[in-house]
Amino acid sequence: MIFLETITTSEKRLCVEVGTRYFYYGDTPGNYDYENPGTQRWVELSEAELRARIREAAELIVESKKNVALTGAGISVESGIPDFRGPNGLWKRYGEHVGHISFFFTNPGEFWKFALEVAKVIFAARPNPAHYALAELEKMGKLHCIITQNIDGLHQKAGSKNVIEIHGTAWRLVCLQCGTKFPVEEIASKLMSKGFTIPRCLKCEGILKPDTVFFGERLPEEELKIAISESMSCDLFMVVGSSLVVYPAASLPGIAKSHGAKTILVNLERTAMDEMFDVVIYGKAGEILPKIVEEVKKMM
Ligand SMILES: [Zn+2]
Questions:
Q1: How many Å apart are CA 67 and CA 88, to the nearest integer?
Q2: C-alpha span between 19 and 31 (Å, rounded)
Q3: For position 82, what pLDDT does the model report?
Q4: Overall average pLDDT of the 97-108 stretch
Q5: Ligand 1 centroid – CA 217 distance (Å)
Q6: Domain-wise residue ranges, the chain
Q7: Ligand 1 center to 204 CA (angstroms)
Q8: Active-site residue among 131, 144, 155, 167?
């Protein structure tokens, strides 16, 4: 099997798997579709074309009255958080069943061992230039809100204020029995001091679960409602670092577009929805977004 390995810095390399071992081809750029061997995932843009598209995106931002951004795993990968879905992602390593709510109910102890390992990475991660660029746009009055599929809290760490977390957050725990929510810090010290135990509610001793959306669970209703209404009422919708394969998030740019919004896509790879966007830029969010913000500043 041939596949792309995602390296923490969002670099990818082409690998070939033989039995249980795999080898990689030096520093092959990641412009390769591992599901359809022989095809490229994106079109290499010339320097001039890239500059032109960055300028177009900046123009749309300057002209917009209400700009909404949707962010996905691609923006977090650049902060060292592995993409759960990628070829070397967490679901490939642990099995997708670990993220299913029924697994949590039957094996909370095993789930929490997995979660602690993931949590170490998430809590230590730092925002990258893409997160800071979005926070800056908000401060400039050129970004109304961020709808994010990420659970890592990196937008808030970068200074963004209006963040709608449609898949929940790893920074909060919820009691399955009484529904009380706790910031992770409140529970973490107790958890660590006792050695490993399943975290329990400080009020009723019920089992605590990360306040994130598991497979088999509904999205938080309030957040989803807000995300849809913001998508319907904006006049610019930017997608950053999402391959637009996870619904309902993937339907938001279509909702915005059908209500008259302009659309921008910044993603490392092609998506099935590229045609729908007014401006498409393939590249690392951490490199592209600061350049867009720079242009916006020049125009304002
Ligand atoms: Zn409780």
A1: 33
A2: 25
A3: 72
A4: 89
A5: 19
A6: 1-41, 43-81+127-167+219-300, 82-124+169-212
A7: 4
A8: 167
Give catalytic status of residue 155 as yes or no.
no
What does the alpha-carbon distance between residue 163 and residue 145 come to, in Å, rounded to a whole number? 6
**106-110, 289-293, 296-300: which range is least confident on average?**
106-110
- Which pLDDT score is estimated for 144? 98
Could you tell me the distance, in angstroms and rounded to a whole number, from the CA of residue 173 to the centre of ligand 1? Answer: 11
Structure tokens at 162: 């209006």
| Arch. (CATH architecture) of 82-124+169-212 | 2-Layer Sandwich (3.30)
- State residue 245's pLDDT score: 81
- How far does residue 175's CA lie from ligand 1's centre (Å)? 5
Ligand 1 mean position to 115 CA, how many Å?
A: 20
Q: Could you name the CATH architecture of 43-81+127-167+219-300?
A: 3-Layer(aba) Sandwich (3.40)
Give the pLDDT of residue 14: 47
Q: List pLDDT tens digits, range 154-172.
A: 999 999 999 999 999 999 9
Confidence (pLDDT) at 290:
98
pTM reported for the whole predicted model: 0.84
User: Contact at 8 Å (CB) between 125 and 80?
Assistant: yes
How far is it, in rounded angstroms, from Cα 243 to Cα 79? 17
**Which two three-digit tokens encode residue 290?**
């600061």
Interval 216-227: pLDDT, tens? 888 889 999 999
How far does residue 177's CA lie from ligand 1's centre (Å)?
5
Rounded Cα distance, 138 and 61, in Å:
11
Q: Say if 43-81+127-167+219-300 and 82-124+169-212 have the same CATH topology.
A: no
Helix locations, 64-206, DSSP H: 73-77, 90-94, 101-106, 108-124, 129-139, 154-158, 184-193
Give yes or no for residue 16 having a pLDDT over 50: no
Amino acid at 206: G
Residue 232 is encoded by which pair of tokens? Answer: 């319907």
- Look up tokens 């081809």; give the residue: 25
